[in-house]
Amino acid sequence: MTPDEFRAAGYAAIDWIAEYLESVEERPVASVVVPGALLAALPPAAPEDPEPWSAVLADLDRRIVPGLMHWQHPSFFGYFPANASPPAILGELLSAGLGVQGMLWVTSPACTELEIGVLEWLRVALGLPDRFSAAGPGGAVLQDTASSATLCALLAARDRCAAPLAQQVLYTSTQAHSSVAKAARIAGFAEAQLRLIPVDDTLAMRVDALSEQVAADRAAGRVCSAVCATVGTTSTGAVDPVAQIGRACGDAWLHVDAAWAGSAAICVEHRGLLAGLEHADSFVFNPHKWLLTNFDCSAFFVADRAPMLAALSILPEYLRNAPTASGEVVDFRDWQVPLGRRFRSLKLWFVLRTYGLSGLRAHIRGHIALAAWFAARIAADPRFELAAPVSLALVCFRHAGGDGVNQRLLDALNGSGRLFLTHTQVDGQLALRLAVGGRMTEARHVEAAWAEMVAWADREAVATG
Amino acid sequence: MTPDEFRAAGYAAIDWIAEYLESVEERPVASVVVPGALLAALPPAAPEDPEPWSAVLADLDRRIVPGLMHWQHPSFFGYFPANASPPAILGELLSAGLGVQGMLWVTSPACTELEIGVLEWLRVALGLPDRFSAAGPGGAVLQDTASSATLCALLAARDRCAAPLAQQVLYTSTQAHSSVAKAARIAGFAEAQLRLIPVDDTLAMRVDALSEQVAADRAAGRVCSAVCATVGTTSTGAVDPVAQIGRACGDAWLHVDAAWAGSAAICVEHRGLLAGLEHADSFVFNPHKWLLTNFDCSAFFVADRAPMLAALSILPEYLRNAPTASGEVVDFRDWQVPLGRRFRSLKLWFVLRTYGLSGLRAHIRGHIALAAWFAARIAADPRFELAAPVSLALVCFRHAGGDGVNQRLLDALNGSGRLFLTHTQVDGQLALRLAVGGRMTEARHVEAAWAEMVAWADREAVATG
């Protein structure tokens, strides 16, 4: 591609995205392709000679789009949102266009410093404690996902702990994200070394049970190296009592996973979510979930960067350089598992500036209001019930008819193509999850979702008469 | 941003990138900013209200660009290349515009299937053994970096090994990338459990030394769970004898790191690089280094996916779905550390189609020819010497005047802003590395680099005369 061909192809790509986002609502949210369909349609080998860009873009429509789940569809209510936005898309574009590496400060100082700067903006915006500021012994970094950040927290905890690995134990609740168990396994812990603490009837970690387990482990000569608390569990949005956990876990590393819910703290009325964070050694939340910044963009804060650096730093000769040797700069390669890193802060900077905090708060508040409206409908209809307390913009609910009915309801809703929800288990029973958080989600989308459910329940009532 | 505002801002961003790439040659390759300069220029907090896109784009020029190292500059010869290209940039753009998640097949079937498809294209293009095909027990996945892929290989090896962690040992050469030591540490190995095998005079792993160490460890009751061989070391591009290593290491997991050099295997005359790969359990190379595909894009192949899945799979209720339960689909979240994943295969598909294999081969061959030309100049000038055998497009060399002279030469070259090289140590002495691999690098850039060195050496001779 010559520069002019790039301009033409680039404009076409921008137009394609604009049209996609304008029309995504008309597409079925979930793909209905069968396994192997795209694979079978691909040639068995790469072409020997160049193909024109127009052919590639045509195949995007013909081959790829039918096989997508449309995460940016305004009636996508599954999992947690991964809400993108125009400035974040352009941030990814410019980051790719620059093609710089942020592994060391010296390999692109602006990449590192903008990241430090916007993460401080986020720290202030969320009201996080000063201990997470880079001005002191703490600091923050952008990672790909909360899974990776949680792994880094466990590695820092594991290596900070004086006891050998085999003697260490970790604590989290039965409701914690699967990434905690995965990180523990990666870090070399046996399954039995991760204690899954039971939860109360709000599905929050029971501090009494935690304390008992800590005492039992201590009595048995085991050492608790880390506790992972969750603010907004993936299943139901439950919030662990971080302050009490912090007091109960002594000098273990306290990691707080607020991957989804953390974004809500930019609204002052939701700051309470993060109460107790002054006890935490690390905290992660994902602007790529609910802060209009394209995946991947996970913000990881530590109160003391030294143990993490001790766990992750290796300096081979070919990476040595004068600024690193001076100790005056931050090299983010030591704050993550990979060596190389993209210029991720660019998109976050763009989002924070073009929306402003007021614009981001309006999005969060709008989503929470829509979820509250939906939850009120659930509560008012005797055929439905809330399966867990409403948490911010997440409503877990079920039809009163039992698992079979709920599975059919979920299949019918998702099969319609008009909306998409996912499920979980609460108290051993199926529950449906409606997570509001799309950039383009409006009242009419949530109202339509509710209308679909009512219509299905009406039909069900007739059918089962 | 409204859709029309997005179009206007998007066109402006495309123009910005086109102009950046057209003029990047005129910029100093390495930034001369002092630590903290950008950070000091940023406001202390995010703006409360939205700012116009034009202000943001203006700050990109004013604040960010002066603080970048220009990795796409045609006279960037440092580290290894991270060579971007127009179709890859547009792939990142469209991936961001779609904003889909590829963590499960069901969360966007096309994201998973295109990845399987283009990785098979790469497997065929590089002439990798059939054992890495997804048609059998093997398969391939895109990861962010070779560091992460190497970690996954070690985790699979660690968990496949019947011996407890403390009894296992790992082998790699003294020249292996730092990511091997980092992965071992992450996976819970103590430093002493990673054996650094000495190298021969080409800086390749000595198989006799490996065999001796294996025998000694076996005699001591230790079990070798993994060996990491390197095809194209970061320091000098040395190539370990993979076939002999495979035969020497028994049933240990053999991982081959060809992060940089692997791309050369798309040229049939360089297929010999990968001799012995039929012994390997896993193989990684980075299209983001030398195959015109923007970072991040690391292709990781395994001969048997089962041990990796055993090490990395966790299936919580909220991720269960019918296609996963059917066993008919691939869920790539189980092939990596993070859960979420971007639609990375899109850019690779774009690159393979718009360049064609012939276009990519022409790039690789061009770079190798330029390096050969430069190496011949070094060999012919008595003031300079090769510090290691030339490897593909990497030339390690030094001025005959010793470390002090070479450090001053490196500082002078990089300080000029007209080119950029990095260094390493060979035989305990400083060596300069010239890695050719930029998309826009032509003969005149390498010729200019040589002219700079000659001019510096001339001045040095006069000064010290």
What would your notes on this structure say?
2 copies of one chain form a homodimer. By secondary structure, chain A is α/β, with parallel strands linked by helices. The first copy, chain A, folds into 3 domains: 3-68, Up-down Bundle (dopa decarboxylase, N-terminal domain); 100-342, Aspartate Aminotransferase, domain 2 (3-Layer(aba) Sandwich), CATH 3.40.640; 355-464, Aspartate Aminotransferase, domain 1, CATH 3.90.1150.10. Chain A is built from 15 helices and 11 strands. Chain A has helices at 3-23, 37-41, 53-64, 86-98, 109-126, 146-160, 178-186, 207-219, 242-248, 287-290, 305-312, 322-326, 345-380, 403-416, 443-464; strands spanning 139-143, 168-173, 194-197, 223-230, 253-257, 282-285, 298-302, 384-386, 394-399, 422-426, 429-435. Chain A has a 7-stranded mixed beta sheet with strand order 1-7-6-5-4-2-3, with helices on both faces. In chain A, helix 4 (86-98) packs antiparallel against helix 13 (345-380). The relative contact order of chain A is 0.14. At the A-B interface, helix 1, helix 2, helix 3, helix 4 and helix 5 of A face helix 1, helix 2, helix 3, helix 4 and helix 5 of B.
